[in-house]
Amino acid sequence: MSMKRTKKASGSSRGGSSEGSLGFNPPTSNVPEWEKVVNEKPEESFIPYTLARGFVRNDLLLHKTFGKGVVLATDGARIEVLFAEGVKKLAHSPS
Q1: What's the pTM?
Q2: If you ran DSSP here, which 8-state letter would residue 39 be given?
Q3: In terms of residue numbers, what domain contains 39?
Q4: Is residue 2 part of a domain?
Q5: What H or E segment, with its residue span, contains residue 79?
Q6: From the CB of residue 70, how many other CB atoms can be counted at a distance below 10 Å?
Q7: How far apart are CA 52 and CA 5, in angstroms?
Q8: 3 domain-assigned
Q9: What pLDDT tens digit does each residue of the chain (95 aa) get?
Q10: Quick check: is 61 in a domain?
């Protein structure tokens, strides 16, 4: 008799660990508070987000949907950005 294991549901088909599918998410306890990092920065500090631009850790960016954010990590052509609503993975063009 064989036993069939059920697959756990996850938000992504590439994996659903607490570290994220790419494995470069910082642990939740180490994610800074958005208000402390972004809130009091001058408007001119934010770089408009585009796929054609490359970003590095701690860059401040302005996304047309998610608003103001700070780059937490980079991995090749992907970045993780902390926005007011949480961490999002976005594409970019690394230099």
Answers
A1: 0.69
A2: T
A3: 33-91
A4: no
A5: strand 78-83
A6: 19
A7: 43
A8: no
A9: 566 665 554 444 444 333 444 455 555 557 888 888 888 899 999 999 999 999 999 999 999 999 999 999 999 999 999 999 999 999 999 87
A10: yes
